[in-house]
Amino acid sequence: MKIITAVLLFVAPPLASGFTTLSGGRVGTKLDAAIFFDSQTGNTEKCAGYLGEASGVPIEYIGDATEDTIKGEDCIIVGAPTWHTGEDECRSGTAWDEWLYDTLPNLGLEGKRVAIFGCGDQQSYSDYYCDAAGELYDQFTAAGAKVYGFTSTDGYEHVESKAEVEDGKFCGLMFDEDNQYDLSEERANSWIAQLKQEGFFV
Questions:
Q1: Which secondary-structure segment (H or E) carries 19?
Q2: Most buried pick, 54, 144, 186, 191, via CB within 10 A?
Q3: Distance (Å, rounded) from C-alpha 13 to C-alpha 75?
Q4: CATH of the domain at 153
Q5: Overall number of domains in the chain
Q6: Which residues, if any, are the signal sequence (predicted)?
Q7: Taking a C-beta distance cutoff of 8 angstroms, is the pair 55, 29 a contact?
């Protein structure tokens, strides 16, 4: 007499908004999405990593990204440090400075879903906190992109910021790895959850 053992396999259903569970409990998206950044000291790269872990979305240096890659994404998260304080343009001191003016206007990103993050130092540069994120906002909106993920300025200690594009609102998520590094991962997780609620990844 043969004995047949039945094995039931549980397959986790997809999550809402195009997300599925990956190994290790991470969450990934079925959509084409990516995080593009550049970094001066490594702080912005670290914060991009937090966002990548929270979202399951790959991260890539903007200088390594092809035009076709960026145009092919359903939604993109972009981030930069602020290095050239007090400047009207080219504030990050990274590859973004040329890319925003030489490449972005020619990509045809009208209607592209974009979310922005920045990295700055509230204590040493409190009058220019995350100004480069404000430049990302200005240039992507000028190119017709739709920006998601505005956040409150509550809990920050800066004096002025060009990333504060509405009263009491940043144009995205701002990090401070110099003075508030202990809040960075929590801020990243909360922001990704907010973007999901806003339909950014749909």
A1: strand 19-21
A2: 191
A3: 23
A4: 3.40.50.360
A5: 1
A6: 1-18
A7: yes
